């Protein structure tokens, strides 16, 4: 089962989750610094990313792991507040530039292609204090930050992700309030944030396109989180329609404006408008794009970056009482099949990734696709032998092979989440997704390969699995 020649095998991390050095060498505070330092059990055992994997000082150790795997690609994110402590180019932190220059140069020396994310949930606190993603001003701030990064690193970085999982971020931060700034605004502010995230992405894509593309010849996209969905009752028309709504509200909400026509899916607009009217709002809680904005947003991605972990079953659930909330707008109940193996929030459903890829191919004009995250948590954190977890990875690679060979999906890069066990947001260090185990009790933060790391290295060396799919 050889994958196409030149297929990209990668792993991924993000700045806040691995770097540590939260106030080192002139770095400004980000919202996660503020959020975790406030305590209140908002994160498992009040853990923080102050030190995390210590990658800010232990980069050489990470590089050893990357070389040990034989990765062709590596996705990491830039800490906005390490580069621009107050979020603006008014003060530029040279030590931050030096750190990322070293990483990027080490990649090129070792034949690894960097995929660089500009924003992975860690907004500079100074910008949050001015309204953050709920303020229109963030669009300009993000565009200026993106231009700074393109001009500083774009001579060597050719693959950019503007925003990581805008759909997850908007919901977790503003619907549920479990990500910073930590205040839930049920049914309203997540839409507002998402609206600004889309416009910020589009603006920065245009900046790259007009100012940097000709000389740098790179590509820019954003990474969208996607759960595949199946009807709870396969022959129920109402459940089938509910599945379409789940996909529309989650994946298509961001992908349709950017890849197709600059606007939200019709079912999203009609559902939110209908519910808003029921609830006595004078207009829809979903903001509208102007015609000019639609033109600006349409076509602002050079490849399709998607992040898949799991699949769910969906049942139609009419919102008869007109309750406020995102899930209530979608009018669904979402749950796992009890027969699926469940690892924390991830149900092991490898075939879901193939269905998702086929959907993207058919819906979005057969784009080049990068899987920028996919993975499974290690069930037993005390053991380095994760043979069972590796089996889930192996099944996933079989499904990817089928997607490429049988469905003719144009998948070009796969990034496992994650290179290292790291700070998994609200779950702190309790949920381990790393290919390498990190001992968070040891100040040296030693990295030790799980069985999965050794097996993944073989896959990369062979450019695929041995044996029939």
Protein described:
- This protein has 469 residues and is α/β, with parallel strands linked by helices.
- The protein has helices at 15-18, 31-37, 59-69, 80-83, 94-109, 125-128, 137-153, 166-175, 189-216, 237-261, 266-278, 291-297, 326-330, 351-363, 387-405, 451-462; strands at 8-12, 73-77, 113-119, 159-164, 219-231, 304-316, 332-335, 342-343, 346-347, 369-373, 411-417, 436-438, 447-449.
- Helix 7 (137-153) runs parallel beside helix 9 and helix 15 (387-405) packs parallel to helix 16.
- The chain is globular.
- The mean pLDDT is 97.
- Keywords: Glycosidase, Hydrolase.
- This is Cytosolic beta-glucosidase.
- Belongs to the glycosyl hydrolase 1 family. Klotho subfamily.
Class derived from helix and strand content: alpha/beta
| Largest sheet composition | 8 strands, parallel, barrel
The amount of helix comes to 40-55%
Shape: globular
In a nutshell, what does this entry contain?
With 469 residues, the chain is of the alpha/beta class. The protein is built from 16 helices and 13 strands. One of its GO terms (molecular function) is beta-galactosidase activity.
